[in-house]
Amino acid sequence: MTAPTPAPSPDPRAEDIFARTRVAFAARAYPSTIKYGIRISGLRNGAWTGRTYDAFEHWPEGTVVARSISEEEAANPYKPPFFAKSILQNFGPPTAQNGGPQGPHILGYPKLAVSYTFGLTPRTTFETAPDATGTGLRTIGSVRAVSRTYDVRLAGEESVDGSACWHLTLRPVGNPGTYRVRDLWVDEQSYQTRKLVTDGNFTRKETGSGLWTVTYSQSGDAWYLASEISQAPFSDETGRYDQIAVQFIGVSADPHENLDFGLSGSIEDDVIVEPADSAPGR
Predict the structure, then answer these.
(1) What integer is the mean pLDDT of 206-229?
(2) Whole-prediction pTM value?
(3) Domain limits, the chain
(4) Are 207 and 237 in contact (CB under 8 A)?
């Protein structure tokens, strides 16, 4: 029996932008080993508290090694000036509500890939080609989609960090648990994603629902995750938080490929990771 032909998109211009955005994701390249810090913080009673973990990612396989002992725990004695130097100065100085001056182990220790794409790497073939769509959009490649995963609409044009972006809204055609992206802000010049909203984040049950705002930043020629911030309160075993912020800091290539930590200390239930995608790529 011949498979039914997918229904045509009600918004072909939005679909074309989305296809080019996925090509841009697929074309991203990174150093073979990336070094960075992962800061997990919770906001409660007006105060932020959290911990920072050193991590490495092997690319392109996406293997992450994260130290199970936080920087705050490793510091002996604890040094209060750390917070003044941390990226959390943007949120206000975090003070612990429990768990000592370093704060509690919010969510557990992380093994999060700084190159993660939230399933937006296409299950497609693509090649550089002239624009044959008649849309007048800038061309960085053409995509032959295997199947439509989202109903994509163009909500308008907005500025993100001073850059003109298309704002796309996405509704999953099926399997919303796998296809979790709900909004994209796509740079009009490069088709790189500067911001997105995802419904549900990580594999921990406590963070399996709710909307998260995700931002990317550029370092050199590469685009990395900058932050993942919850839009609503939720609770885990360390208590209820008004907001959770995950920030990726100090991202750099690691020419020495140092992997001298991270393989001891915590059981798998204490690890937070992004869900595995059914599509090739991440």
Answers:
(1) 90
(2) 0.77
(3) 29-116+220-252
(4) no
